[in-house]
Each structure stands twice: as C-alpha cells, then as structure tokens.
C-alpha cells in the first residue's frame, strides 16, 4: 500500500511544477515510509510513496515498461489478489516481467488490455498510467472503493492524490467549504456524498470507475456496479457458493512478504476470517498472529445496549486459544484515546468518528511494531444484512439515511440561520431519495427483497464507504496495510441477488454467512449477536473530552462563533443517547465537536 499523486497539464506543461508535486507527495509520506519516487515528462508529474509488502527489493515506483515502441509509466496504490493468474495470461500475450511485484502486473494489464484492465483485476487499487506516446493518463479505482482517489480540475490542469492533504498542499487549491460541504459535515459526517468531498471543487473518482485525462479533459465512467439478476438455486446452493467465494478470498489475501496478522474481535466476521486463515497458515507450516482490542476501564464500565449487547474480550481470546493463534490483546489507555483525536483528524483530513477513529489510530501504531499487513472483517454487515435497517422497515421508510438515528443531533447545536438548517435537511433528503431511486431492482421482487436491495445499496455506497475510509486512513497513517476479504466484489455480486428469505432465514441476521461457516466455528461464535467495533465506556473519557471542548471554545474559533450555547448546555446535561451508527453517543459527539473545531483551525478552512 502506498500513496500516489500527480499534476497533469498537456496545454501548459509549465503548470506542472516539480517541487509542488513532490511537496504534495511529502504530505502523505506516512502512507509509504519505505521509499519514494517521481516521474516527470512533458505536461505530466507523478509521485509515489511506497509501503513495501510484495517483492520489497523489486517493486519501486514509478514503474515503466515498453510495448511496441511505446513507453508506459504507472503509480499504483493497492494489492491485486489474482496477480499470479494474470501474470501467466499476460506473459502469453507478450508481457516481460522483471519483478515479483503486482505493480508490474497492473502496468502490463493496462498496456495489453487498455481500458478493460480494471475489469480483470481482483483486488483493492487506485492507479494512474501515463501513455508517454500520447498525451493521455488513464486512471482506475477498485470496485468497492477500498483505496482512495481524490482529484480536481483547475482550468486545463488536473491534480490528483490519495488523500485530501495532498491536494490542499497546492496553493491553487484553497481549503474552501460551501453550503453543501457544511451540510455534509453537520448532517452526514463521517459519511460524505458519493463523488464529492466536503471541500469545494475537490471530487473523488467513484468506486468501480475508470477515467482518462487528455487534451479533451477528464472523462469518467463506470466499469462495474452491482446488478439485479434473477436468482437461480436454493439455500443449500447459496450456502455452498458463499463458502467457496469466502474461502478463496481469504486464502488469496494471506500472501505477503512482510509479517501478517488478523484483527479478531470474537464476532462472526473476524472469527470467520481467522478460522480460515489459521487453517491455511497451519497448512503452510506457520502459526497465525491475531489481535483484539480493549479499552482501559471497560470491564468495569461496560453497559449492554441494543447495538452492543456484549463485550468482545472473552470471545476473542477464547477463540484464539481454540484455533491455536498467537494472540495479543491491545488495551488503549483512556487519555491516549482522547489525545489521539486530533491526530485522527490529520490522518483522515476530516472530523471523523471521534474515539472510534482515534482508538484505531492508537491500535494501528501498536500493531506496526510487529506487523505490516492485517486482515479485517469490514463489509460483511453491509453485504449480508447485519444492520437493524435491513430488517426494521421503519428505519428505511423515514426519508433519511437510516444509520442517522437523529439527523438533527449536530446541526441543531449551531445557529440555524448561519448553517441554513432547513435547506440542508431538504437537500440531504433529496440525495437520499435519488440514491434509493438508483437502486437496481427486478420487476416482481417481493417487498422484503426490494427493501433488502435498497438497504444493501445504501449501506455499501455510503456507510461502508465511510468505514473503509476510516480503516484506510488510520492504518496507513501508521504504515499498516489492511486487507478486507469481504470486500471481494464477487461476494457482493452474488449475495446482492440471493433472496432475503435465505439471507434472513428464521429471523436471524446474516443467516446465510452463518450457515456457510458451520463446522468452522463453535456455536457460541457462529450465532453470537452482532457487536460492532468496540468503544470506550470509561466515564473518564467523557471527562477528558469535556475539558478539551472547553479549551476549544476558549480559542474563539469556529465553535465559539457558531455554537448555540443553550443547546450545547442541554446536550451536556441531557441523556446519553446514540445518534449515529451503533457507537456514537454523547461522549463521541463532544469529541467530534472538538475535532471539527481543530479541523477548521488546522486546515485553515474558509466558508464560502
């Protein structure tokens, strides 16, 4: 995993300033601490920071190759899991390989297959290829958006980068936020609108999209999207197919030339990955390393809720012992979780999920001491139907994104006229309606299947995108690569069309995945109620963030100028209720306000 960035202008090559392009790369050096490189040609500047995972000695970038007298150069961030098969097929078509690195496979795949190349890749990726015989650069991003890609076009100049900070380092790209950006922050964050960022004029290359930039400008289109198809088969066939796809996805993602581990919470998803990985590692004569996360004081302070009915610690440690993994429990000190809140903003370039982000940042820093690659269980709930809005119709029918239990929780704390609260709510409702209308469907789908498709569509395009962003930024800020086997596009393609009656058999969430893992996991894990990524329940954390909020307000920044103090007081004295997802309650809202104020200050954000 790495960072990529660049500047391209075929009409005004002098606009491509070497120092500015290198400076942008330097802002993202934590994503690639093992090396850096640059490629400059007429009108094109590309940079790369490398986190060496496969073929550390031979995979330096930018990487170039020749075919039929034409020279191509790539910068690439990602991991390709079908690289071995592609290498054989490409060699038969004339590719000549000098490394064992998948970068070279992606490069030759484009050289031979051109715009079809991303369709042939199984993996997580964002890349740019410069065809030096033409004024043309080709771009592509993986199907589920695991790897990031931001860009902006200013006149005839294209700027792109793996992270927002890389773009904002250019003086031509001011950190400006308009009304829609502010509404994203105060209604949706950490979720953002598809294809956009909160910053004015900065966009993202959408997941499953490819693009070309040449003298005709930026042209982008989809090469992949889930499709509604008639399901052929029964529950037994669906179970067998899911098991086959999942085993293949996990096994492919265990290849690494650097130390690898699995994040094990003791829930269904991470346990399923661990069971498959431990078995495969034993076959290879190795012992799998696993990690679980805990917080200082949680055992004494934990309170069960609808969204988090149980703690994880006993489940994770017990399964690790049963599977024979080398297990480590990482415990985050309360003060460290609070202190890392601002570091998490700098990693994400946005106010994110408060201590859910900062704790992961802390844990990844600890993991990096021993491991560079980890496998994680994200994406399962969005694909198999693990969230309440999949089986509680009223959550989808209330005309707003279902994971926002109280859409007004944050924006109501600010002066209504200043943030245009009413207009913002209607804007977000319209985005929601359009997103639902775009969901693929088949004529004759029963109501429960229509709802299941809609819940999957919304969850994968928005909620899951936010979780993947969080995992990428927090891990890469520490030089750790996270792989997500459930994000294998073949799994989503298949499960999207499995009838809801099979996925939710007998009223059991993720029943299809549970059946697929029968025999691989003990019953206590296999049918354990979903429990999300853990958060701190220590009351000392809320005390810490309350003090931080007082400090932020004393600075006279964005919060001091815009917060409604009476509403803030009501929040601080009121009930501790969950308002976003499954984890964000009052301590997280207080912490998020601190992050927001720090973000405005640190990034010198201007409202326009």
Would you kindly provide a written description of the structure presented here, covering whatever features stand out?
With 608 residues, this protein is an alpha/beta fold. Helices cover 42% and strands 17% of the residues. The protein has a 6-stranded antiparallel beta sheet. Helix 7 packs parallel to helix 9 and helix 11 packs across helix 12. The longest helix is centred in the last third of the chain and has 30 residues, at 447-476.
Shape: globular
Rg (C-alpha, Å): 24 Å
Helix/sheet category: alpha/beta
**Fraction of residues in β-strands:** 15-25%
Distance between the termini: 35 Å
Helix content: 40-55%
Report the count of strand segments.
Answer: 19
Number of helices: 26
Q: Based on the structure, what is the oligomeric state of the protein chains?
A: single chain
Largest sheet: 6 strands, antiparallel
List the strand order in the largest sheet. Answer: 2-3-1-9-8-11
What value does the average pLDDT take?
Answer: 94
Which residues form runs of ≥5 with pLDDT under 50? none
């Amino acid at each position: 995993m790495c960072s990529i960035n660049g500047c391209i202008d075929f009409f005004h090559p002098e606009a491509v300033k070497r120092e500015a392009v290198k400076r942008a790369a330097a802002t993202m050096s934590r994503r690639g601490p093992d090396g850096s490189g640059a490629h400059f040609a007429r009108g094109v500047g590309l940079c790369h920071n490398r986190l060496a995972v496969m073929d550390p000695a031979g995979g330096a970038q930018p990487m170039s190759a020749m075919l039929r007298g034409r020279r191509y150069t790539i910068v690439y961030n990602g991991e390709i899991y079908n690289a071995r098969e592609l290498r054989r097929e490409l060699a038969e078509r004339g590719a000549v390989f000098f490394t064992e690195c998948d970068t070279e496979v992606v490069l030759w795949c484009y050289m031979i297959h051109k715009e079809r190349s991303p369709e042939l890749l199984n993996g997580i990726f964002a890349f740019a290829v410069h065809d030096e015989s033409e004024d043309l650069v080709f771009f592509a991003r993986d199907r589920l958006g695991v790897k990031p890609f931001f860009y902006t076009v200013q006149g005839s100049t294209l700027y792109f980068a793996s992270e927002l900070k890389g773009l904002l380092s250019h003086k031509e790209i001011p950190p400006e936020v308009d009304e829609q950006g502010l509404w994203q922050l105060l209604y949706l964050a950490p979720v953002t609108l598809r294809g956009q960022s909160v910053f004015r004029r900065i966009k993202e290359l959408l997941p499953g999209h490819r693009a070309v930039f040449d003298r005709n400008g930026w042209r982008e289109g989809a090469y992949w999207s889930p499709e509604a198809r008639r399901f052929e088969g029964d529950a037994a066939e669906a179970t067998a197919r899911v098991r086959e796809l999942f085993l293949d996805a996990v096994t492919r993602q265990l290849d690494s030339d650097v130390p690898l581990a699995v994040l094990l919470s003791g829930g269904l998803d991470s346990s399923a990955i661990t069971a498959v990985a431990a078995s495969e590692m034993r076959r290879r004569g190795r012992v799998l390393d696993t990690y679980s996360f805990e917080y200082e004081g949680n055992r004494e302070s934990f309170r069960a809720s609808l969204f988090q009915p149980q703690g994880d610690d006993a489940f994770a440690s017990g399964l690790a012992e049963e599977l024979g993994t080398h297990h480590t429990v990482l415990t985050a000190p309360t003060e460290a979780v609070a202190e890392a809140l601002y570091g998490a903003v700098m990693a994400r370039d946005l106010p994110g999920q408060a201590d859910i982000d900062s704790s992961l940042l802390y844990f990844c820093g600890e993991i990096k001491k021993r491991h560079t690659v980890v496998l994680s269980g994200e994406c399962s709930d969005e694909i198999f139907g693990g969230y309440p809005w999949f089986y509680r119709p009223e959550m989808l029918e209330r005309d707003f994104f279902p994971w926002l239990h109280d859409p007004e929780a944050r924006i109501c704390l600010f002066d209504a006229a200043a943030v245009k609260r009413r207009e913002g709510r209607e804007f977000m409702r319209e985005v929601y309606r359009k997103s639902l209308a775009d969901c693929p469907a088949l004529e004759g789908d029963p109501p429960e299947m229509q709802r299941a498709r809609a819940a999957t569509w919304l969850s994968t395009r928005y909620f899951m995108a936010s979780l993947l962003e969080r995992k990428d930024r927090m891990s890469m800020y520490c030089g750790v690569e996270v792989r997500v086997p459930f994000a294998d596009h073949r799994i989503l393609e298949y499960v999207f069309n499995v009838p809801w009656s099979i996925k939710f058999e007998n009223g059991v969430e993720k029943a299809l995945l549970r059946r697929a893992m029968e025999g691989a996991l003990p019953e206590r894990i296999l049918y354990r109620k979903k429990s999300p990524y853990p958060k701190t329940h220590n009351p000392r954390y809320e005390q810490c963030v309350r003090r931080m909020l007082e400090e932020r307000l004393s600075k006279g920044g964005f919060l001091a100028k815009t917060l409604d103090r009476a509403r803030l007081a009501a929040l601080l004295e009121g009930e501790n209720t969950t308002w976003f997802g499954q984890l964000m309650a009052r301590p997280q809202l207080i912490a998020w306000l601190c992050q927001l104020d720090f973000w405005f200050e640190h990034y010198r954000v201007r409202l326009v």
